[in-house]
Write a structure and sequence with these properties.
This protein is of the alpha/beta class. The protein is 30% helix and 26% strand. It binds S-adenosylmethionine. S-adenosylmethionine binds next to helix 1.
Amino acid sequence: MIDPAERIIGLYDDKAEGWIADRGPALGGLGKSIDEVEAFERFAAALPRGGAVLDVGCGSGWPWGAALIERGFRVTGLDASPRLLAHAAQTLPEGEWVVGDMRAFDLARTFDGVLVWYSLFHLTPGDQRRALRHLLPHLPPNGVLMMTIATEAGVSIGHWRGESLYHASLGASAYAAILADGDFIRDDHGGRPDTGSEAWILRRRTDHPPSQPNVVPGLDQSAHQG
Ligand SMILES: C[S@@+](CC[C@H](N)C(=O)[O-])C[C@H]1O[C@@H](n2cnc3c(N)ncnc32)[C@H](O)[C@@H]1O
């Protein structure tokens, strides 16, 4: 039997058309535990006008990338699914779409904001820590991070389009500790605590130098689309 955590990337790529259909083009189309429209407004308000945003695990670019572009932000999306990114490049040519694995990437620049929306939770706990080590250096002092978190630590297996769907959480206190260690301060948090899902907005402190982006030997940056 295939390990559901190892299957995640292939699952989204194999069923890219299904994901695009299920996700829909508008914010608010995925579950009710977090109000995406409200989260979008909070994130946009925390960013400088026209700022650069990195969307980690961006899927097809819809709805987040599209909404951010529409609001005047410069969007770079990173995802492991070439098919989802092909859709993004075709339908949102204003964006920059990069095929990459969030567990090992280095875009060698920083962004005003980084968005991690319903993507980190598909990684094992160890891989989530690895991904955070790669993505946090993409934020400079005063940079803004918005991420969804499941507050309870643990693993849960859901189902989607006939296959198992892996999710895991380190738990709220572990995320808070990692982010505090990276000099991030909670700006605010939304979502409905009773549902166990929250959207955190954090800002990197300005009184410490940023850590250097990790150099990841062998990462093929030529897979850039769009
Ligand atoms: C639930 S979807 C969310 C997509 C998008 N953030 C949204 O809100 O519509 C999860 C996404 O994470 C991507 N993903 C999963 N594991 C990844 C990894 N290791 N590196 C990069 N992307 C990954 C999948 O390809 C998929 O597009």
